[in-house]
Amino acid sequence: MMPGRARHATPAARPMSLTATAATARPPSEPRPAALRVLGAVSASHLINDMMQSLILAIYPVLQGRFALTFAQIGLITLTYQLTASLFQPVIGTFTDRKPRPYLLPLGMTSTLCGLLLLAYAPSYATVLMAAALVGLGSAVFHPESSRVARLASGGRHGFAQSIFQVGGNTGSAIGPLVAAAVIVPYGQHSVAWFALPALLGIVLLLQVSRWHAQHHTVAVHRGPVPATAATYSRRVVLGAIAVLLSLIFSKYFYVAGISTFYTFYLIDKFGLSVQSAQVHLFVFLFASALGTLVGGPLGDRIGRKPVIWFSILGVAPFALMLPHADLFWTTALTIVIGLVLSSAFSAIVVYAQELVPGKVGMVSGLFFGFAFGMGGLGAAVLGVLADHTSIDFVYRTIAYLPLLGVVAALLPKRSGGHAPR
After folding, report:
1. How far, in Å, are 81, 129, 365 from residue 113 at the CA level?
2. Which letter, b or e, does each residue of 63-72 get, where b requires 16 or more Cβ atoms within 10 Å of its Cβ?
3. How does DSSP assign 366-422, residue by residue?
């Protein structure tokens, strides 16, 4: 809708047109307010998307019982959907940087929906892998584009917007095991199909977000090209910083893969918990991770990204090292702390990288979300093989050292390309 026709808009469409009109009238130097409705819709869609992803993790005990899977085969399921997402996200992000495609978002959710339905009625292990790949493809489309929308709607508060976006996904990941304990474990694999309803809701939300995104892009086109942002650092420094950030992503997501993929088996094996009780403990860990996400972005806006990144990765190391030696009570307490602290890093890392490479939001978001997914999938596969040859307890003792890699955050430049609001 063109700004000059706002007076003819219907009441339902008027808020969007007013936003567009204000965008054209406001001087470039004046900060825009965050589009909270858009951020809320993107966050809610992220919740739905990642809840459906986490159902794969949560259904592992059911699939293991039905198909007699080894830990390596379970890890391969995670690798399949994470690697699919990992490979496609940077490609899609780079493509849409050049040619924006606002309506890709509901198409991505449709792919995830198809994967979920296939998973519900999968007759074999090979079909389960196909379903996981479709879910991964849906995430590959969803994450870079929705991260771009979050930045567009941020009003300059990039860390805040990225945290709002991320908390939806982490909350969805936390809800998945709880839903599985209440629905999938007692009613079996076919009950996964019931979650087609939230997926359809997600498609409806993303259609609205895509309409806003398309309108925002149309207004930007009519305002003319935006002057390129000058790079603050040399290419060598930027590439070195990106390498450091990817090392931190490796440390974080390899460790998280060990916790999230095998936590239910760890609790069942070490403490004799039931499947449903173990799923509740997994929910507690993932929900703590969701809460931690709310802290990292806004705190990075205030004090800078680097201190948040440094504290989040390296700060969790003492708790990770204690975890394999704890009883059930302290295992629960330690995983809550680990979830809260470790999850605060990702929003800060993504925004830091976006500021290092201005004008490449889709490419940077796709690279980091994709690498995170890839490391999570690779970690699940490698650690699954290790668990088959040793034990789940040995895996937990081994991965406890990974957060120590957070020390490389000291190599990051003091400030990223764009200064955060203070």
Report:
1. 14, 15, 23
2. beeeeebebb
3. HHHHHHHHHHHHHHHHHHHHHHHHS-HHHHHHHHTTGGGGGGGGGGS-SS-SSPPP-
Residue 294 · residue 182 · CB < 8 Å: no
Query: Cα-atom radius of gyration of the chain, to the nearest Å?
Result: 21
| DSSP string of 164-209, one letter each residue | HHHHHHHHHHHHHHHHIIIIIHHH-GGGGGGGHHHHHHHHHHHHHH
> Does this model's pTM top 0.70?
no
pLDDT tens, residue by residue, 35-55:
888 989 999 998 998 888 877
The full DSSP string for 253-271 is HHHHHHHHHHHHHHHHHHH
Give the count of beta carbons closer than 10 Å to the beta carbon of residue 82.
29
CA 277, 279, 281, 287: dihedral to nearest 10 degrees? -140
pLDDT digits (tens, 9 = 90+) for 179-228: 877 888 788 888 888 988 999 999 999 999 999 988 875 544 444 444 44
| C-alpha to C-alpha distance for 163 and 153, rounded to whole angstroms | 13
Amino acid letter, residue 31: P
Chain center to CA of 125: 26
Closest CA to 143 of 102, 200, 105: 105
The segment with the largest mean pLDDT, out of 118-122, 184-188, 356-360, 418-422, is 118-122
Give the Cα separation of 355 and 162 in Å (integer). 13
